[in-house]
Amino acid sequence: METKVYKQKDDNLKELAEILKAGGLVAIPTETVYGLAADGLNPEAVKKIFTAKNRPMDNPLILHIFEIDQIYDLVENLDPVYADILSKLWPGPLTVILKKSSLIPDEVSAGLDTVAIRMPDKKLTRDLISLAGSPLAAPSANISGRPSPTSAKAVLADMNGRIEAILDGGDSKIGIESTVLDLSVSPVKILRPGYYTQEILEEYFGQVDLDLALKDKDQTPKSPGQKYKHYSPRAKVVVFMGDDDKVVNEIKKISQDQENIGIMVFEDQVHKFPESEKVISMGSKDDLSEMAHMLFESFRDMDEKQVETILVQGVEEKGFGLSIMNRLNKAAGNNIKYII
Ligand code: TXA
Ligand code: MG
After folding, report:
1. Measured from the CA of 223, which atom of ligand 1 is nearest?
2. pLDDT at residue 240, as a whole number
3. Ligand 1 centre from 303 Cα, in Å?
4. Class of the 236-339 domain?
5. CA 255 → CA 233, 248, 252, 309, distances in Å?
6. Which ligand is nearest to the CA of 146?
7. Nearest C-alpha neighbor of 216 from the set 72, 317, 95
8. Which CATH number fits domain 4-215: 3.90.870.10, 3.40.50.170, 3.40.350.10, 3.20.20.70?
9. Nearest CA to ligand 1 atom 3
10. What's the pLDDT score for residue 267?
């Protein structure tokens, strides 16, 4: 199959909606990462997502909607208090888990009695969902285990020949996936950390718990996807935690002893390394948005440069830092070095 890349144009949206209605696969841009979309109420179409991605069938998918009213058919019931909060946080990088209605195919929910739903903050994509006439099931548009794609180019690198089309909507603004929040339990619980942190969500929901598995690696995660190795470039990733100077000295030492090392450090540390295309700045430590934005793309970039090991400066696991470290921990297969 030839994978066609479409630019953002109204006529193109109509064509892409037809592909989706016919049960085909279209990669869609969102503010977090690109998604690999199919008609979420068509089991045969949904199955194709798992094949294209090599995704384990026990890992459920998120349904993407274009307006809040679309949720009511998809869940058993939505507490009006939650509906009100969602109308404030959506469209945006938040996925909620609710008891599913009988409309949801088992392929979407992986046999669970809940379903994940999100309204993406990208008008173009909401227009496509609306035209497709059905919620779109969409996991990140990478081969399972690889870094999530944040550009049409990254989608093409993984999915060329495997899907019908890609809608090129430019770079994803945020760069890491949505926060997954379980509203089917009380107090509500974060299953996957993301742009919306525990602190922000508590302003809306009151008490918000963190799934124990996010703190303790020996716990079984409640979100099936969290148990798999993830976000990994071909290169080995090692993350260094601790005082800036000590971390940088350690990274320098290792990079002098070994060949083919890639380095990702904060901008104020970059000047301590020889100038090289394999030394990448992650922006400011005080504003982690740049780090989130470039993380997955930089992993892919390092692979293109045939780097064997990537040494990354970590961040404190609080606020948005917790979400970024969640991705880094998985990319590194928990290979975290604490330099004291
Ligand atoms: O930002 C995002 O969320 C992106 C864009 C494309 O929307 N999507 C995304 O999908 O990251 P995916 O499939 O890569 O991750 C979905 C996560 C997985 O960890 C999955 O296990 C979890 O959501 N999930 C889905 N349905 C669930 C459910 N019913 N209960 C618990 N976890 C669920
Ligand atoms: Mg994913």
Report:
1. 32
2. 98
3. 25
4. alpha beta
5. 19, 10, 5, 9
6. 2
7. 317
8. 3.90.870.10
9. 178
10. 98
Residues in Cβ contact with 107 at an 8 Å cutoff, skipping those fewer than 6 apart:
43, 46, 47, 50, 57, 61
Among the atoms of ligand 1, which is closest to the Cα of residue 138? Answer: 6
Per-residue pLDDT at 225: 77
Predicted structure pTM score: 0.96
Residue 64 amino acid letter? H
- The rounded Å distance from CA 278 to ligand 1 centre is 32
- How does residue 332 score in pLDDT terms, banded at 50, 70 and 90? very high
- 140 Cβ closer than 6 Å to some ligand 1 atom: yes
The pLDDT of residue 34 is: 98
Structural tokens at position 28: 């869609």
Decide: 149 and 296 in contact? Cβ < 8 Å: yes
Q: Whose CA is nearest to atom 6 of ligand 1?
A: 35
Q: Locate the domains of the chain by residue range.
A: 4-215, 236-339
